[in-house]
Amino acid sequence: MFTDRRPIVWTALFLASTVLTSVTGFFFHSASFGPPHVIGVISLVILAFTIAALYAFRLEKFWRWIYISGAVAALYLNVFVAVVQAFQKLPFLQLLAPTQSEPPFLVVQVVVLATFVSLGVGAAMRFFSDRNAPA
Fold first, then answer.
1. Domain contains 1
2. pLDDT above 70: percentage of residues in the chain
3. For residue 114, which of 66, 68, 76, 71 has the smallest C-alpha distance?
């Protein structure tokens, strides 16, 4: 997105693996519909629009924005879940935030979010400036 080139295979692999990651999360036994399921549903909705923007609407007009924001948001949600899992599973992180409501966990999540927002804005600016540049 920073170079206005979309490696077709890598893009398809990212989208397919992200969809599969979200879908397979529903196969784990759970007593109730909880936060992981909500994240999965949000991710799948975002991915549906992202895939439609890329493949059905070929990034025409406002679909470019939907593609950029959707791809960045889908990746962010994967990283968000990875951070949660890291704080749940890694003993040294678990000691820092056993309930994931402690400052170290919140700081890491805010830094991750800020990073993705800045990368998303940068990617969108670069993606669109290259598209509109004269040939």
1. no
2. 90
3. 76
The count of structural domains within the chain is 1
Contact between 18 and 43 under an 8 Å Cβ cutoff? The reply is: yes
CB within 8 A of 129, min separation 6: which ones? none
| Among 28, 16, 24, 22, CA closest to 41 | 22
Question: What residues make up the domain containing 83?
Answer: 8-132
- CA 68/CA 3 separation, integer angstroms: 13
* 104, 53 Cβ separation under 8 angstroms: no
Residue labelled with tokens 């549906």: 48
Residue with tokens 């889908």: 74
**Assigned domain for 3 exists:** no
The pTM assigned to this predicted structure is 0.87
